[in-house]
Design a protein that fits this description.
CATH architecture of the largest domain: Alpha-Beta Complex
CATH topology of the largest domain: Spore Coat Polysaccharide Biosynthesis Protein SpsA, Chain A
Mean pLDDT: 93
Shape: globular
Strand content: 15-25%
Number of strands: 11
Helix content: 40-55%
Order of helices and strands: EHEHEHEEHEHEEEEHHEHHHHHHH
Low-confidence stretches: none
Structural class: alpha/beta
């Protein structure tokens, strides 16, 4: 068996909140101890956080970083793991508890077929009551891509159920828990650090698919995630900016023209929503990013890199994208009764042209 790296990013005081249960469940893995190594990237590192990690997880390799860039942190972990001879890289969240067969089932899944480049765990919501331990709820069975760059979790808040085999993930693997092969990392050049945080998992999955690899769900690899929607929504700038970086990077120019009318319509709606909900300045900051020539230069360079390894047309991948914006934690009647029917109708037409 090949050596595996488990790469976990700490951010500021996350370790004090989440490390203990995460560490204990990693120590309990039914996987040969000599064949996996834990790497913790101490993002936005301080002397206090470094000392806490060293004291409470002495067998982990700690990599301090200063700027808080999540994508760069994962690249730093992968680089260190490559130096340590690892050939499989597991990206996982710290705010989680891993079942004892979590790692072995991830490795088994990605090894089962040479065309499988990434495998995601079955991610359950961390139970808050005794009843939820008996009847757990789903966090993600793989993530879904909307054709305008939004990302949603498949199966969110549904009751857990048995899944057989290794079903293909049509969208992208959740960065909460997935494994990727060395050959994939070598081919796609790891994470695009411009994303900083959010949509980074969409970005790396999209590249892997364009490079010709499959992404699957490993349903026997189970982890329980202490998911907090409020923690995610606080980073609206990156969520909104990065979905645009994704579509400008991955769509061909003809396909960008096809989605342009819908993108303008959506952006106008989001602009109004930002005014009504107090994050108009955040939306303006997103516009400001794309008014900088250097931003477009970075996007162009990424497009050129993707050309060098692309084996699959973006149209073949985009046909699996969704035309409907899923609400999940947010209910919006304008989106439900007006925008979604329009986007669905438009996308069904566009898919036939792609």
């Amino acid at each position: 068996m090949k050596k595996t790296a488990v790469i976990i990013v700490n951010y500021k005081n996350y370790a004090e909140k989440f490390l203990r249960e995460c560490r204990d469940s990693l120590r309990a893995q039914n996987y040969p101890k000599e064949l996996y190594q834990i790497y913790i990237i101490d993002n936005a590192s301080s002397e206090k956080s470094r000392n806490y990690l060293k004291k409470n997880y002495p067998e982990a390799i700690i990599i301090p970083r200063e700027d808080g860039n999540y994508s760069a942190a994962n690249n730093a972990g992968i680089k260190k793991a490559l130096e340590g001879g690892c050939e499989y890289f597991v990206i996982a969240n710290m705010d989680a508890k891993f079942d004892k067969n979590w790692l072995v089932e991830l490795v088994k899944a990605v090894r089962s077929d040479e065309k499988i480049g990434i495998a995601q765990s079955k991610i359950l919501l961390y139970p808050k009551t005794e009843e939820e331990w008996k009847k757990p709820k789903i966090n993600s069975l793989g993530n879904i891509i909307h054709f305008l760059g939004f990302g949603f979790t498949k199966g969110y808040n549904e009751s857990d159920y048995e899944i057989k085999g290794l079903p293909e993930i049509k969208g992208y693997a959740s960065g909460c828990s997935f494994i990727v092969k060395k050959e994939v990392i070598d081919k796609i050049n790891g994470y695009n650090e411009e994303y900083y945080m959010y949509h980074d998992d969409m970005e790396i999955s999209w590249k892997a698919k364009l490079a010709g690899y499959r992404i699957v769900l490993a349903p026997k690899s189970i982890m329980r995630h202490k998911y907090d929607f409020a923690r995610s929504i606080s980073m609206l700038y990156y969520m909104e900016r990065n979905r645009y970086i994704a579509i400008f990077t991955f769509y061909s120019l003809p396909n960008l023209l096809l989605i342009f009318p819908a993108a303008v319509f959506m952006d106008f709606g989001i602009l109004l929503y930002s005014i009504a909900n107090g994050w108009f300045l955040t939306k303006l900051k997103v516009y400001g990013y794309f008014l900088k020539p250097n931003s477009w230069l970075k996007i162009f360079k990424q497009r050129q890199k993707i050309k060098s390894f692309r084996e699959i047309k973006d149209s073949d991948i985009a046909r699996n994208f969704l035309g409907e914006v899923l609400f999940q934690e947010i209910e919006n009647p304008v989106l439900k009764y007006i925008a979604n029917p329009i986007f669905n109708f438009y996308w069904n037409i566009v898919k036939k042209i792609l």
